[in-house]
Amino acid sequence: EAFFVRNGFDVRTRDACDEYARVRFPGLEATPTPTQGYCSYTLNLSKDYLLQFRPEAFMLDIETCSEVKAIYGKFAPTTTYLGKVQGIATNNLDINTESPAMHAYLHKRIQGIPLSEFRRRMRMSGREANDKIFKKRLMRGLAKVFALGFRGRRPLGDVAMLAGSVSKGKIGESMRWRLGLLSGLPGEDLLSYVSEAQRRLESIEASDWCLTHGDVLPGNMMVDAKTGRLTGLIDWAEAEWLPFGMALYGVEEVLGEHIPSEGFRYYHDHGELRRVFWGKFLSLIGRDAIEPMRVEAGRRLGILLWRGIAFDDGKIDRVVEAGRDDSEI
Hints:
The chain is an alpha+beta fold. The chain has helices at residues 2-6, 13-24, 62-72, 115-125, 131-151, 156-162, 175-182, 188-205, 249-253, 270-285, 292-308; strands at 31-32, 41-44, 49-55, 79-84, 102-108, 113-114, 209-212, 221-223, 230-233, 240-243, 256-259, 263-266, 309-310, 318-319. InterPro entries: AGP_Transferase (IPR051678), Aminoglycoside_PTrfase (IPR002575), Kinase-like_dom_sf (IPR011009).
């Protein structure tokens, strides 16, 4: 219920969404997915399809969804916009203010379970003994996804043409400003990385740009429940064109895990796993296709922006603070 209230809807909006599913897809039993996203309400329609509802602020760009599918193929869902949901109740008491709208989307399901759930099941079943096999398999799968993104790369000028009048997305157009925000990070060590990123920004922006998933986390990585093989990435709502390398923060996210009261901790074999990723990636795109120093600069910038800027209901306009965002720091 918090999702609906947070976005200005009456709690009865959920009933309206459920009714929309019953009317639009008669004969199918629509049930809420076990895990709900922060920006949407999602229903299981069948083993192949999901129905998702999003408020105006978190609408999907269908053209971007189509581009994602064209570049990433089986690793990305097929998304269809179904339109606005009628008869939505809101908490808005001001008759002069436009009521929030809810939009419906049909997603062809990426089969499997989230990596976060796969990890939980492994711990519960005592399968840690084979953990390295699964982790290496995951790294090779991620390398394939990044190679597809790299093959679809464009010079920045081409990105401008592809995107029409808007050449960059939310992050791409504000990297310099966000780096300025990051100058407020606590600690000289962190600030040295910010200064380095500021010096290298022009070089990073001169890189080829790739259509980049904006939320590469274990919860958005789907894997086969038995083998751990990567089947795809879900929730491309924040996808945009960014310099290659910036999304490599997502590789860091699977080289370790968040430990309660400790924060993020790398696996003891993270160095070996990193080599598995790069070995597979370079075998797919060619060892001379990238400039390692520029890619490394992009990777560090991506980590800074991902971990250094607070989410805050999607605003992503505040630097993380000691005592308030310690896990991110």
